[in-house]
Amino acid sequence: MKITNAMTVDVEDYFQVSAFEPHISKQQWDVLPHRVAANTNRILDLFAAHGVKATFFTLGWVAERYPELIKRIVAEGHELACHGYQHIRVTEQTPEQFRADVIKSKTILEDLGGVAVIGYRAASYSINTSNLWALDILQQLDFAYSSSIYPVQHDLYGIPDAPRFMYQPIAGQDFKEIPISTLRLGNKNRPCGGGGFFRLYPYAISKLAFQHLNQREQQACIFYCHPWEIDPEQPRQTGLSLKTRFRHYLNLNKMEQRITHLLNDFAWDTMANVFLNK
User: Fold this and answer.
1) Is 233 exposed, middle or buried (0-12, 13-18, 19+ CB in 10 A)?
2) From CA 227, how far away is CA 13, in angstroms rounded?
3) How many structural domains is the chain composed of?
4) CA 182/CA 209 separation, integer angstroms
5) CB atoms inside a 10 Å sphere around CB 197
6) What is the rounded CA–CA span in Å between residue 7 and residue 223?
7) Residue 111 and residue 247: Cα distance in Å, rounded?
8) Assuming Cys at both sites, which of 28, 100, 124, 165 could form a disulfide with 18, CB separation 3.0 to 4.6 Å?
9) Distances from the Cα of 49 to the Cαs of 16, 56, 263, in angstroms?
10) What pLDDT, in 10s, does the model give residues 80-120?
């Protein structure tokens, strides 16, 4: 039987990525050219052409400014989910600040979308061993799942020894953590679920990884991307480190074609439909 995988989009603009925080202040966000609505609509068009439903983890900040985008996501049968309000990493928040941020963004999304928001993804996968209290808060706020812990070793995020597939992180609660897909090679988990890694590797490698997960491990994959990743014409930032520039701008001109290959080669649906049967 063909396994259905979960397609996800983290709805944020190019200037909101964590790596740009030292270079672009939040006070500048409203005066910079916005490209998130146009790019997200391009992704929605692509999904519509292939009959694919996806989960859109959306910033409250974006939703406030582009309510019609939220309405289109919901109207076309996609899952609307929460990505926080202003892309602040959980590692930079106290429990009280995190709770307030989540409540604010969840309320904005539910009011605009007219649907319950049950999924959450932390900015830059920033739930780690130092702030697992965030999962308790999400469960208390009526989220059914999080997709915020990346079971890899990375300089910015990750819990390398976390489970690779969906699990219940809170004893006695049905709340789920659903990690981004990884491939186990040797004694390490290797990222294969999207983002910069998907742009770095040739598409054939990503295809083989997903086939292995589906066919050999009999597990559904989770893929993620950002609207700015299909936009090679986005304004270029200056003063970036070589590593940041490489990670952000690598192969942006190839991303849309690679996503199209994924849509053709595998079966896709929302997080809720794949993992929760909602």
Assistant:
1) exposed
2) 7
3) 1
4) 8
5) 18
6) 5
7) 35
8) 124
9) 28, 17, 10
10) 999 999 999 999 999 999 999 999 999 999 999 999 999 99
CA nearest 134: which of 201, 84, 71? 84
Q: Give the pLDDT band of residue 246 (cuts 50, 70, 90).
A: very high
What is residue 278's predicted lDDT score, i.e. its pLDDT?
A: 55
Query: How do residues 18-77 score in pLDDT, each as one tens digit?
Result: 999 999 999 999 999 999 999 999 999 999 999 999 999 999 999 999 999 999 999 999
Q: Which residue matches tokens 């597990």?
A: 219
Token pair in block for residue 90: 């959980």
Question: What span, in angstroms and rounded, lies between the C-alpha atoms of 222 and 231?
Answer: 22
Q: Which two tokens stand for residue 220?
A: 């559904």
How far apart (Å, rounded) are the C-alpha atoms in residues 234 and 16? 13
Span 213-240, mean pLDDT? Answer: 97
Residue 270 sits in which domain range? 4-276
CATH of the domain at 155: 3.20.20.370
**Comparing C-alpha atoms, which of 21, 32, 78 is closest to residue 54?**
78
